[in-house]
Amino acid sequence: MSLSGQPTDAVRLARAYLSHATESGRVAVVALVDEVGPVEAANRVRSGDAALTDITSDTRSYPEGLVRRQLENFMAAGGRLVIPEDEEWPVGPLMALSGTEAGVAHGGGPLALWVCGSYRLADVLGNAVAVVGSRAATGYGEHVASEFGYGLAEQGVTVISGAAYGIDGAAHRGAMQAQGVTLAVLACGADVAYPAGHQGLLSRIAREGMIVSEYPPGQVPARHRFLARNRIIAALSAGTVVVEAGRRSGAKHTAKVAVALERSLMAVPGPITSVTSLGCHELMRRRIATPVSSVAEILESVPQLDASDARHA
């Protein structure tokens, strides 16, 4: 597909460039785009006129021709770059990220989303729940995550997670076993198999569900990108279920973001002897999260969900 000659293509290329030149969730960058538009914002960043401290000379000078080729190659491989100017853009869910910098790390909205999968974002995100938790999950936790993924998908609910080992992978697999929709939000490029042991799972999600990332193809994961990714998981979901989490856990960060965005937060009780349930018990003890032990209780705890929805076509 050619990208030349159309105004919309110029906007898409500008947003693709900005996703290379800036880290995700930078409120100053989002504000600049909102003020002058993506094309002018890209021009200012490229020329060095934009006084943005997190942009280096290396990223600023990323060649336009290389951005164009990368975007064309990504599209040729079946992916697409979804931007706020597209009808597919999930306006409602992501609107919550506007002005959240005080309560959410990397709190600005995404400039664009690199997507693999045949579903339209706006269609599958009207009815979505995140199922997250520990990478070092117990058998109990993986069983619960799989059951929740399956049961939610059976009810027409999109299951969102981060494709990590443990709870994330179990939730994705459960949803696909029910032939439902699952969406993986990555902290790296949508074409990067991370973790490496989930290459097969990610390929299956791309075929049967959706993979979404703020990061351009080839970008590798980093700690700050996982934190930024967590806000996208929370924003795209009407509610978040923490299945297992230690006292210090990425899942607890996702939970914090969900609360800041005024999303429903739930947690699964576990054995009092299990360190992977300490974070869940803390969330419940502090009355931050609602205890849930079944799909029915999740549906009751997230009033925005419509469990009567038919499966996404």
UniProtKB/TrEMBL annotation:
Pfam families from the UniProt entry: DNA_processg_A
UniProt-listed SUPFAM superfamilies: MCP/YpsA-like (SSF102405)
Family from the record: Belongs to the DprA/Smf family.
Protein name per the record: DNA processing protein
Superkingdom as given in the UniProt entry: Bacteria
Native source species: Lentzea flaviverrucosa
Gene Ontology BP term (one): DNA-mediated transformation
Smf/DprA SLOG domain location: 108-302
